[in-house]
Amino acid sequence: AGPGDIVNSDPNLFPVLVGSPAYHPFARSSPAIDTGNPAGCADQIGNLLPTDQRGIARFGRCDIGAYEYDPNEDPLSYIILPYLDHRCDPLYKDDFSNPSSGWPVADSVNFKVEYLSGEYRMLIRSTNYGVIVRPGFQATDYVISVDMRNPGYIFGSYGIAFGIAQDFSSFYTFEIYPDGWFGLYRFNPSSITVLAEAYSPAILQGIATNHIKLVRSGASIAAYANGQLLASVADGTYSGMRFVGLIGFSYDQANVDIRFDNYLVYPTVCIGFTSPQTVFDRDGAGIVGFCRSLFEQQTRRP
């Protein structure tokens, strides 16, 4: 018995290493490290031992036992170095803190779009009405994400518009609903095609903020909510250089009020796709408001 003794504790030794003599190295988690006699390690007659059994110098407060810990012999020791991959810098980003960043601002009988308190607001005043907005950004393949909330909890659908034609005549949307449903849709001037539509517990209901993500790579389209994959489909009807933006719809209730924040567009290479680097360009921003046709009311989820 003596100062520094540790009883009934695993010393965390690695297997014997061949040497002259053979010895057990410590793992870096060993309780024996730096816990020897504070007066110095000594032999059975009290002589200080300046080296361990290998002749390696003891240092600081010595370790318990015949071995002085050497981190170079610890197979679990490693060095972490910073790594930067500039391919994953965003192609486009907007936190809506700058009211002059390029999104449309308008106020009409049917809707209002504006920058408001660090968010982008889409207020749809009329029933059965849609609003689609875009900044002056277009791309081919990309990952789009945005945070959204419905502070008034008035039923509508809202989300990401992508593959938008110059004249807004055709586009895709990824929308969520405040009751936990979502939809992927393809629009043209005469019809809407449902690519995917279902309920998902990953979608936070009510006034909660949802983080949604849309991945477009060639004909592949994948939709996510709060980190969970909702649907993956193949549709290459609208491809090539097209605009991206935001969408909102009202149904039987007026004054659907949606807030958007942290709009980000990344190249698909950031998530492991092997397609070429995203091509992107800038053009004029735009906005369209439109009444839903009877066909749309019958086709879209009520």
Please provide a brief summary of the model.
The chain has 302 residues and is mainly beta.
Number of helices: 1
Radius of gyration, in Å, reads 31 Å
Strand content: 35-45%
- Uncertain spans, ≥5 residues at pLDDT below 50? 272-279
- Average predicted local confidence, pLDDT: 86
Largest sheet: 9 strands, antiparallel
Summarize the structure in words.
This protein is an all-beta fold. It has one helix and 18 strands. The longest helix is centred in the last third of the chain and has 6 residues.
How are the secondary structure elements laid out?
Blueprint: E1 92-94, E2 106-107, E3 111-116, E4 119-124, E5 129-134, E6 137-139, E7 142-149, E8 156-164, E9 171-176, E10 181-188, E11 191-199, E12 210-217, E13 220-225, E14 228-234, E15 242-250, E16 256-266, E17 280-282, E18 286-291, H1 294-299
Antiparallel strand pairs: 1-16, 2-3, 3-4, 4-16, 5-15, 5-18, 6-15, 6-17, 7-12, 7-16, 8-9, 8-15, 9-10, 10-11, 12-13, 13-14
Characteristic key phrases:
302 residues; 9-stranded antiparallel β-sheet; 18 strands; 1 helix; mainly beta
